[in-house]
């Protein structure tokens, strides 16, 4: 899955969520409109029934209403004086009907509701109410509900976009991390693989014309290249684990780890005529992953040895500092510019001096391990006066 597919999935999720919420809002709005309209209509019917029950004459109807009466034993019809001729005809027709209620048109697009009642004395009464106020209130209710639904739909779109972004974010992060790991692997493995392949080709060619004892040096170089390649792969795996997974909650003696690292790197240092030693006073307990911490210290020592001249010194000092455990890797080599410290901690940043891998993935790896363990990596030094890299971790 690529970024375009993730964006398409996010947009589709937003559209589907907004559509579902929009349908729900539409149904709820329609239901509210119907129920409110019925309630107002029933209220008007109850009002008309009360008017017919209490009416004594046709001259004083409530506002917006017209009364009509036909007395017992006569065809004469009395109608409120303000009634229009059309409305008078509507009421005369209503008085000929049985008790009923209906809506009709009183001319000039003037809707009215007519209700007819027969009294016990034989008289017939009819009332007509103007429906314009009711229709106007229904129209206003419809507009209000429409505005509310549009606002709700806009809120639903915003909420759906936020939820979709949060839902897709882990996938996007995983995709970015995958691409970053592939980029790291491609960048770091390209050179050692090329060197290894070239050396193997040369070795094959020389093996055809030279005896085996003359190829010892080339074989040792080939082994060294494979070891370097393995270290790069280990760096990549440790960096990935440190960045994506929390370290295990186990107690680790950092002084003991530092001693192991110095012991394992001592042969490499002696080959370069460099004095490598460790200083520690007692246990220095931290919590985390022993393998990751060992790899971080190994990277710092490798960096220091690679940037110290023949006869130089590299010292690993493990100590307690302000309630934390500090592992200082100090050398008297080419040094560094403190102003470039932040840049040198970036992935694939490189210094201008030395032969080690100080400014490749190594320092970025150490910084990731430190952060994963709740610590930090401090850098100090000056050009021509060596450098000090401090792995600072919370103490147990």
TrEMBL record:
InterPro entries: HATPase_C_sf, HATPase_dom, His_kinase_dom, HisK_dim/P_dom, HisK_dim/P_sf, Sig_transdc_His_kin-like_C, TCS_sensor_his_kinase. PROSITE patterns: HIS_KIN. It is an enzyme of class 2 (transferase). The chain crosses the membrane at residues 14-35, 141-164. Its EC number is 2.7.13.3. It catalyses: ATP + protein L-histidine = ADP + protein N-phospho-L-histidine. It is found in: Cell membrane. SUPFAM superfamilies: ATPase domain of HSP90 chaperone/DNA topoisomerase II/histidine kinase, Homodimeric domain of signal transducing histidine kinase. Its main location: membrane. Keywords: Kinase, Membrane, Phosphoprotein, Transferase, Transmembrane, Transmembrane helix, Two-component regulatory system. Residues 184-396 form the Histidine kinase domain. The keyword Transmembrane applies. PANTHER family: SENSOR HISTIDINE KINASE TRCS (PTHR45436:SF5), SENSOR HISTIDINE KINASE YKOH (PTHR45436). This is histidine kinase.
């Amino acid at each position: 899955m690529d970024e375009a597919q993730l964006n398409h999935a996010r947009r589709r999720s937003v559209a589907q969520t907004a559509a579902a919420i929009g349908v729900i809002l539409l149904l709820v709005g329609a239901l509210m409109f119907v129920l409110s309209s019925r309630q107002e209509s029933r209220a008007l019917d109850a009002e008309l029934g009360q008017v017919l029950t209490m009416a004594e004459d046709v001259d004083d109807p409530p506002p917006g209403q017209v009364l009509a009466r036909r007395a017992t034993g006569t065809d004469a019809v009395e109608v409120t004086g303000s009634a229009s001729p059309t409305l008078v005809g509507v009421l005369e027709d209503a008085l000929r009907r049985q008790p009923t209620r209906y809506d009709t048109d009183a001319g000039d697009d003037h809707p009215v509701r007519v209700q007819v009642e027969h009294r016990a004395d034989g008289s017939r009464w009819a009332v007509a109410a103007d429906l314009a106020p009711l229709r106007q209130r229904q129209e206003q209710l419809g507009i209000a509900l429409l505005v509310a639904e549009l606002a709700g739909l806009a809120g639903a779109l915003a909420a759906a976009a936020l939820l979709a972004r949060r839902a897709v974010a882990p996938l996007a992060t995983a995709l970015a991390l995958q691409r970053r790991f592939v980029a790291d692997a491609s960048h770091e493995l390209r050179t050692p693989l090329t060197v290894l392949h070239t050396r193997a080709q040369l070795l094959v060619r020389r093996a055809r014309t030279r005896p085996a004892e003359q190829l010892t040096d080339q074989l040792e170089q080939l082994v060294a290249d494979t070891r370097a390649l393995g270290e790069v792969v280990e760096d990549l795996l440790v960096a990935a684990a440190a960045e994506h997974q929390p370290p295990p909650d186990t107690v680790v003696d950092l002084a003991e780890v530092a001693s192991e690292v110095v012991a394992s790197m001592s042969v490499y240092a002696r080959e370069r005529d460099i004095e490598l030693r460790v200083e520690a006073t007692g246990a220095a307990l931290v919590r985390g992953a022993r393998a990751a911490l060992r790899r971080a210290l190994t990277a710092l020592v490798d960096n220091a040895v690679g940037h110290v001249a023949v006869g130089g010194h590299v010292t690993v000092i493990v100590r307690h500092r302000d309630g934390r455990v500090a592992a200082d890797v100090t050398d008297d080599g080419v040094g560094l510019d403190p102003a470039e410290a932040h840049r040198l901690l970036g992935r694939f940043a490189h210094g201008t001096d030395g032969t080690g891998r100080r400014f490749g993935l190594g320092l970025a790896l150490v910084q990731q391990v430190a952060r994963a363990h709740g610590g930090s990596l401090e850098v100090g030094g000056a050009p021509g006066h060596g450098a000090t890299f401090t792995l600072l971790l919370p103490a147990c």
